[in-house]
Write a structure and sequence with these properties.
The protein is mainly α.
């Protein structure tokens, strides 16, 4: 048996063991997960099922948008089909389940690239991640500002100090977002950094691809990132409705944007992510919903985690096992 084939089998075995172990740990250590499943089956018998069906349909929309983003990113170096792009994204979800903040998603995606293009594949994937972070920053910081003013009642306090605090907060948010957009639309700044720092020059050949992305390419990527955020947020809202919670749409979207923002900045492993998601969602929704809704919010958060991460990860595990890693 060839050495490369043995290495491929070993890598796939390790991925399979880590993924299954992570999944079993999560199921065995989360009582709310079992409760959410029982509640889901109960609510399915009622008239709410259309909300759940719509959330499942949006799962395919969500990951299809991400596949379009990744295909757009790597076409500069290796054109691939939409199906291959989708497989790469889904495999990335699988590997991401047992890595901090799902950074392992890069590893799954580059399996579908030619071997000499894989480091560049990681570089361009970082562009897509940066774009999605900007979306999370934009929506999250704006949601934070609204939350502080409206739900923490800062806007009701009419003092000079309070006005200065609101103005400082607003200006800080604008400056942070402006800086992010400037860096995003001027990726050559990053490439120039590799020219200036001597020990980074050897990596320049991999980061040179950044200069091939024009404003229109980056704008399209950002547009797809915003579209994906909208899909993800609406999925959460549909699941809240599925579990019988009468939540107002606009207020819910503000809270959901804030939840996604906080979840992004909290370092976590997927094995602990469900607990973090549930606690964060429960905390922020408590400002707009009665206490009796807290279990429904946790169930909706758990269902979103299962639909958008666990189900695709299982599918991705099958793709990885069938993939010839040594190619």
């Amino acid at each position: 048996m060839k050495k490369t084939k043995i290495i491929g089998i070993l890598i796939k075995s390790i991925i399979a063991v880590l993924f299954v172990g992570t999944l079993l740990w999560q199921i065995n250590h989360k009582e709310k997960l079992a409760d959410a499943w029982q509640t889901l089956l109960l609510d399915w018998q009622q008239s709410n099922k259309l909300y759940l069906i719509a959330a499942f349909v949006l799962m395919f929309v969500n990951w299809s948008i991400e596949a379009l983003k990744w295909r757009l990113l790597i076409k500069k170096m290796q054109p691939i089909s939409f199906l291959q792009s989708l497989k790469g994204v889904i495999c990335g979800v699988t590997i991401g389940t047992f890595t901090p903040n799902r950074v392992g998603e890069f590893g799954g995606r580059i399996l579908f690239l030619q071997q000499h293009q894989r480091i560049k594949g990681i570089v361009v994937t970082l562009i897509g991640s940066f774009g999605q972070i900007i979306v999370t920053l934009t929506t999250g910081l704006l949601a934070s500002y609204i939350f502080i003013l409206k739900y923490l009642h800062l806007s009701l306090i009419k003092t000079h100090e309070n006005f200065l605090l609101q103005a400082t907060l607003g200006i800080s948010i604008v400056l942070l977002l402006a800086s992010s957009f400037i860096i995003y639309f001027n990726l050559n700044l990053i490439e120039n950094l590799f020219n200036r720092i001597s020990y980074l020059r050897k990596l320049k050949k991999y980061f040179a691809i950044l200069s091939t992305f024009g404003y229109w390419d980056l704008f399209r990527l950002l547009l797809l990132s915003y579209l994906r955020f909208i899909v993800f947020a609406f999925q959460f809202f549909l699941l809240i409705k599925f579990f019988g919670i009468a939540a107002p749409l606009l207020s819910s979207l503000v809270i959901i944007a804030l939840i996604f923002f906080v979840q992004t900045i909290i370092p976590t492993f997927t094995i602990a992510e469900l607990g973090v998601r549930g606690k964060v969602s429960e905390f922020f929704f408590s400002y707009i919903l009665p206490l009796s809704s807290k279990f429904g919010i946790v169930y909706a958060s758990s269902a979103l985690w299962i639909i958008n991460l666990i189900i695709p990860a299982i599918i991705g595990a099958v793709f990885i096992l069938r993939k010839k890693i040594e190619d």
